[in-house]
Amino acid sequence: MMNIEQILQYLPHRYPFLLVDRVLEMEVGKRILALKNVTINEPFFPGHFPHAPVMPGVLILEALAQAAAVLSFETMGTRPDADSIVYFAGIDEARFRRPVVPGDQLLLEVELLRNVRGISKYSATARVGEEVAAQAQLMCALKGLK
């Protein structure tokens, strides 16, 4: 539904911090399903951990937040400008169920629960296949959008 060139129009992130490769499904105002291909070439693997590479949990949450940002901008019918940014406002009930390793395809499913005065709350789940890798409730604040 959305390729990397289109995603780049919604996210200010760039390598090595762009963590969404493709949007597979989107219901504007409701949910998004995005994909992150996890490869051994990720810059964090040499240090996390050299003997058993595992994607850091905080980066799984960041990938979910980036998918949420795409959903939010598409829902608002706008794109970010040079002055706009989405910040984490809260992370609740984060749980990590399975390690994410090189070769995995991380499915990022985010549901918009509410949006009030620029602060949005989401239910987010990261999966590898049918297995849940991580879950959390995310709150994000949009700053600077004109």
Give a written overview of the molecule:
- The chain is α+β, with helices and mostly antiparallel strands and 146 residues long.
- The chain has a single domain (4-143), classed as Thiol Ester Dehydrase, Chain A (Roll), CATH 3.10.129.
- 16% of the residues lie in helices and 41% in strands.
- A hairpin with a 3-residue loop joins strand 1 (22-27) and strand 2.
- The model has no long low-confidence stretch (mean pLDDT 95).
Oligomer class: single chain
- From the N-terminal CA to the C-terminal CA, the straight-line distance is 26 Å
Counted up, domains total 1
| Named CATH topology | Thiol Ester Dehydrase, Chain A
Give the CA-based shape.
globular
Overall average pLDDT: 95
Largest sheet: 6 strands, antiparallel
Counted beta strands: 6
Structural class of the secondary structure composition? alpha+beta
The level of helicity is 10-25%
Instruction: Find the CATH superfamily.
Output: Hotdog Thioesterase
Tally of contiguous helical segments: 2
Output the radius of gyration.
Answer: 15 Å
Order of helices and strands: HEEHEEEE
* CATH hierarchy: architecture: Roll
Query: Which percent range describes the beta-strand content?
Result: 35-45%
- Unreliable sequence segments: none
Order of adjacent strands in the largest pleated sheet: 1-2-4-5-6-3
The level 1 CATH classification is Alpha Beta
Subcellular location: Cytoplasm
Function: Involved in unsaturated fatty acids biosynthesis. Catalyzes the dehydration of short chain beta-hydroxyacyl-ACPs and long chain saturated and unsaturated beta-hydroxyacyl-ACPs.
Active site: 48
Organism: Tepidiphilus thermophilus
